[in-house]
Amino acid sequence: MIDHFGTIKVLKNFLPLLGTLKKNTIVIKFGGAAMTDITLIHDIIEDIVLLHNLGLKLIIVHGGGPMINFWLNKINIKPMFENGLRVTDEKTLEVVEMVLCGKINGELVNLLNINNVQAIGLSGKDAGFIIANSIDNSPSNLIGKIISIDPTLINLLINNNYLPVVAPIASNLRGQSYNINADIVAGEIACAMNAHQLIILTDTPGILLKASDPTTLLSSLDIIKVKTLIHQNVITGGMLPKVNCCLKAISQGTSSTHIIDGRVPHSLLLSLLTDYTIGSTIRSC
Ligand SMILES: Nc1ncnc2c1ncn2[C@@H]1O[C@H](COP(=O)(O)OP(=O)(O)OP(=O)(O)O)[C@@H](O)[C@H]1O
Ligand SMILES: [Mg+2]
Description:
The protein is of the alpha/beta class. The protein has helices spanning 4-23, 38-53, 65-74, 90-113, 152-159, 182-192, 223-231, 239-251, 267-273; strands spanning 25-30, 57-62, 81-82, 85-86, 119-123, 130-134, 144-149, 163-167, 169-171, 177-179, 197-202, 207-208, 217-218, 220-221, 256-261, 280-282. Helices cover 41% and strands 22% of the residues. A hairpin with a 2-residue loop joins strand 3 and strand 4 (85-86). Helix 3 crosses helix 4 and helix 6 (182-192) packs parallel to helix 8. The protein is globular.
């Protein structure tokens, strides 16, 4: 039997939270690691559609690591990483840009649009909204670092009910493209937009003390704990740019940052709309 009074109670409790959420910007990083399965992608898209239709101001930044590796392997380029960042020379960049901007971005936008969301795909190159440079200022190293972000374009989109979907590629003032880790792009956009929340969807339950052991999930960490875990080599590889961008976003005013498991059905909704504890929350103290 339907509990009508229960439904009304849920709505009454939910509306004040919704009112607060609608006032703020939320950056969601959709990790490539959480995109390996089409059902998974559809589930996450469904949650994003619901949140957008509830009136939340969202910005999606996506990765694409596994798909980039797949295409690199096809042309006999061995994917390599240093400190969680993809080693990027000219040939690698060509593949990275094709996969991120040409394939993944278009597919995500398409999936959102067929669900009646007005999604706009863009990279940092569009209207030059992200200016980047080589991470070590060397002309052959095409791993990018962000020099500046102009929030005008993204503001224009979200204030007109469009949903920006950002591929993590940007260029310098001379048009040289750079591959920027998507976590870093998400974190920097959160800072530039004064976002209230940064949510990172990936393929682990959150930050684990022991790799592959979900019972060692750390559900809440402060800056000191994160730095200790980096020092102890507990946080490594692809988790490094995540925690670093969370720390930066927090230091610049983002109220909460979360690393959650994109493979768990409705993890986004659970994180944003309920007080269910999911993933790892990084807080300032
Ligand atoms: N302490 C840790 N706890 C959990 N995961 C960790 C930890 N240290 C390193 N990792 C690794 O970080 C990975 C997630 O980062 P990864 O870059 O692979 O995914 P992603 O960022 O979601 O995808 P993409 O880079 O394609 O956007 C995990 O799969 C895990 O192997
Ligand atoms: Mg990654």
